[in-house]
Amino acid sequence: MSTLDALVQIIANGVKDIQSKSAERGMPYPMPETPPSPEGEKLQSDLAADAAPVIAAAWQLIATLKHPHTYLLELGTLTYLSGSMSAAEAAYVPDVLREAGTKGLHVNEIAAVRNIDAGKLGRILRHLASRHIFEEVVPDVFRNNRISSSMCTGKPVQDMVRSPIDRWDDTNGIAAFVSTQAETQRGNAWLAEHLLDPAMGHSQESNEAPWQRAMHTKLTLFEWMERPEHALEMRKFGISMRASTSSDDSIVTTRGFEWASLPSGNLVIDVGGGVGSLTMSLAKAHKHLRYVVQDRHAVVQEGERLWKATMPGFVENDIVRLQGHDFFAEQPITNADVFVLRCVLHDWPDKYASKILSRLRDAAQPTTKLVVMDAIIDYMCRDSGAVADIPGAAKPQVQEPLLPYADSATGFMYGLDVGVMTIANCQERTLGHFVELLKGAGWKVERVCRFEPPLPQQLVCSPLAPKAVLSTVQHTAHL
């Protein structure tokens, strides 16, 4: 069987299987034109593993059928897609069209909400519609589809106009995440020049990345956001962190680490937890535990405001405490039952990530657990590399001619890996890399809990005995 035949067969059989499983649940698989619904969202989440090989085959089929010149030209312009999404969000287009209803709205009326150029906005929306984000129903009249509706905040547009900084409050974080790309991707245009710079190209410092070159600053992204003039950026960045947990809070709180089995009163420390997006999900489901959310003082101030507005009673009744703390400094809490690092380590190069982990090891009791929630990058070859015999480490591969891991081939993590490189010289990591990094800081990976993207994976760790701790982190080429 030829590669083309194999890809077509994978797509045909996969689609048939998905349709059959959807029918068993009494509903058709949602299309872009299908109105958003909790049932449709859950169906897609539940069938994500079934859909991944089909999506991977579709992408590979496109790459196979396209002329290489055309394929590269199209990929070279994808950066403008992200800019268009950020622009549409900044113009409140998803919520304006939500209020307009199924008939849609002329671009002149959409643009008038934020007093922007209608001709330019129309071209931006047409670009997005070409990728099935929004729908152009007649010339210059656009309406939401299921995909663009996911960017809605649900807030009245009049309220958004009156107070732009509040528009992401109490949302799932998707709109905020889309908007953050306007800031975080600025270094992308400088990536090649930066890598070729003999002075800066090899730097592993967080304030010497392409983003700093683009912004003409020596501040890290987080220091930059803490400036008073960037209050809006600070607000939306914290809320955007919900985008990888709010896709299904019940999965985060009921699968993976055994939160429910922890004894009443156990103390969970969300280290570098931002405004507490993860802890909000955990605290709702597991009220028998106590929580501390630690982050920089400026972030904690924003978190206190957000908790009181969206989850009243938790902070006031001391179920949750927000604490200003620099995770490179000595950890002040030495009686933690669980430390959590959610999407923290990928923000830091190895030498800084190791220091964060070492501070937690120094403060840990023998029974303390560390739960690292982060992406695990797969190799794009079928040799998965040498990884310790850890429960959950092995990941099933899909059939050839597909790339070995369908969810990785279709996901956004490799793009995010390059993205965090441009922001702060940091990275996503392979499992082997994580094991060595954690071992060097005094932690043993006990097991890996796997989740469907975009949810991060979980590495459950325990403290190594002091004699087993490596004095330095050894990195080899296979990491």
UniProtKB/TrEMBL annotation:
InterPro entries: COMT-like, COMT_C, SAM-dependent_MTases_sf, WH-like_DNA-bd_sf, WH_DNA-bd_sf. One of its GO terms (biological process) is methylation. Residues 22-43 are annotated as: Disordered. Keywords: Methyltransferase, S-adenosyl-L-methionine, Transferase. SUPFAM superfamilies: S-adenosyl-L-methionine-dependent methyltransferases (SSF53335), Winged helix' DNA-binding domain (SSF46785). GO terms for molecular function: O-methyltransferase activity. Pfam families: Methyltransf_2. The keyword Transferase applies. Residues 29-38 have a biased composition (Pro residues). Gene3D superfamilies: Vaccinia Virus protein VP39, Winged helix-like DNA-binding domain superfamily/Winged helix DNA-binding domain. Residues 205-380 form the O-methyltransferase C-terminal domain. It comes from the Eukaryota. This is O-methyltransferase C-terminal domain-containing protein. It comes from Phanerochaete carnosa (strain HHB-10118-sp) (White-rot fungus).
